[in-house]
Structure formats: C-alpha cells, structure tokens
Amino acid sequence: MSSQLEQLGLEKELTPRNYRAVRFGFLFFVATQIVPYVVLYEAKYVYAGSYVSPRASQILGVVTAALMLLSLIVAWGVMRLSRESGDQQAIRSRLKVAAVLGIFAILTTFYQWSGRYTSPQSRFGEMFFAITGADIVYAVVGLIMLWAAISRAGRINLKPEKYWTVEAGVYFWVFVALAWIASWIVVYLL
C-alpha cells in the first residue's frame, strides 16, 4: 500500500512551496464558502427586512454564538501550539474541547428549533431556519474535519511539515465559527 501511495506521490513530504500552494488553495476554497451566507443574508433582508421576531430567543442566540466564539479561540490556540511545541496530546485535547463546544452550539440550536420560539411559517422564521440550518450543515462538516485531525494526531507522529490535517481542520472550523457569529449578528441584531 505504501509503495502505491509513493507511486502516486501521496507519501511525499510537502515542500515549503507546495505547502504554501496547498494552504492558499484551501483558504481560497474556504473563502468561496462565504457565498451561500451572503445569499442567505441578502434573502433575509429581502424577505424579512430588519424585523426580528419578539418570540426569537435572544438569550439562546447569545449562548450559541458565545459557544462558537470560545470554540474558535480554543481551535486557534491549536495553531500556535502545533507550531511552537508540537505536543500531540495537548493538540488532541484542545481540538476535542473545540469540537465539544461546537456540539453544544448545535444542540442549543436544536433546542431553539424544538421550542418553536419562531414560527417557521413567518418570513423571519423561514430565514431563521434557513440560516441556522446552513450553520449546522457547515458545523457538521467542520466537526468531521476536526475529528479527522484528532484521529490523525493520535495515529502518527506529526512533524511540523505534517500538521496540514490539523491546520486545515482548524482553518475550516474558524470559518464555521465566524460564519455562525455573523449569522447571529444578522439574525438577531441587524
């Protein structure tokens, strides 16, 4: 199996130039994921304007955004930790904390949905469920990427040039957290 991977060029170390190209390509991909959010935010203003339902739970919205902000801070700390010390146990434990905070944010949103604080039949409700649904879809993808980074950090001895899995997972998770916070601002404040 290893020789097959080597023939395909998949077992090679990333050179600094290739590493920059891979990072640029991935960050470009992440940046393109802003488009669905821009469309959803525009649709919110077309359909509901700046109206916020008085039944919308501002407190649950703040709790969810705060959980994602904490998750973002923890995940971003992993980047610094991976570059400075490379302590795999600390990296794995912090990624797990970031993932658990993300799971709690998802569960808080599900609780908000189940409580029917906002009617899905209103214009505000339609956009609320569409925007928070997009947040959850992206968060699930981000959690899968964090899980991959956690499992990879546990299976192999990561050298600084092999931290790409961790770095990619963190970059995507930071995007997810920032998008979730922006969604909270759009849905509840603007």
TrEMBL record:
<keyword id="KW-1133">Transmembrane helix</keyword>
<keyword id="KW-1003">Cell membrane</keyword>
<dbReference type="GO" id="GO:0019646">
    <property type="term" value="P:aerobic electron transport chain"/>
</dbReference>
<protein>
    <submittedName>
        <fullName>Cytochrome c oxidase subunit 3</fullName>
    </submittedName>
</protein>
<keyword id="KW-0812">Transmembrane</keyword>
<feature type="transmembrane region" description="Helical">
    <location>
        <begin position="170"/>
        <end position="189"/>
    </location>
</feature>
<dbReference type="InterPro" id="IPR013833">
    <property type="entry name" value="Cyt_c_oxidase_su3_a-hlx"/>
</dbReference>
<dbReference type="GO" id="GO:0005886">
    <property type="term" value="C:plasma membrane"/>
</dbReference>
<dbReference type="GO" id="GO:0004129">
    <property type="term" value="F:cytochrome-c oxidase activity"/>
</dbReference>
<comment type="similarity">
    <text>Belongs to the cytochrome c oxidase subunit 3 family.</text>
</comment>
<dbReference type="Pfam" id="PF00510">
    <property type="entry name" value="COX3"/>
</dbReference>
<dbReference type="InterPro" id="IPR035973">
    <property type="entry name" value="Cyt_c_oxidase_su3-like_sf"/>
</dbReference>
<feature type="transmembrane region" description="Helical">
    <location>
        <begin position="98"/>
        <end position="115"/>
    </location>
</feature>
<dbReference type="InterPro" id="IPR024791">
    <property type="entry name" value="Cyt_c/ubiquinol_Oxase_su3"/>
</dbReference>
<feature type="domain" description="Heme-copper oxidase subunit III family profile">
    <location>
        <begin position="1"/>
        <end position="190"/>
    </location>
</feature>
<feature type="transmembrane region" description="Helical">
    <location>
        <begin position="21"/>
        <end position="39"/>
    </location>
</feature>
<keyword id="KW-0472">Membrane</keyword>
<feature type="transmembrane region" description="Helical">
    <location>
        <begin position="127"/>
        <end position="150"/>
    </location>
</feature>
<dbReference type="InterPro" id="IPR000298">
    <property type="entry name" value="Cyt_c_oxidase-like_su3"/>
</dbReference>
<feature type="transmembrane region" description="Helical">
    <location>
        <begin position="59"/>
        <end position="78"/>
    </location>
</feature>
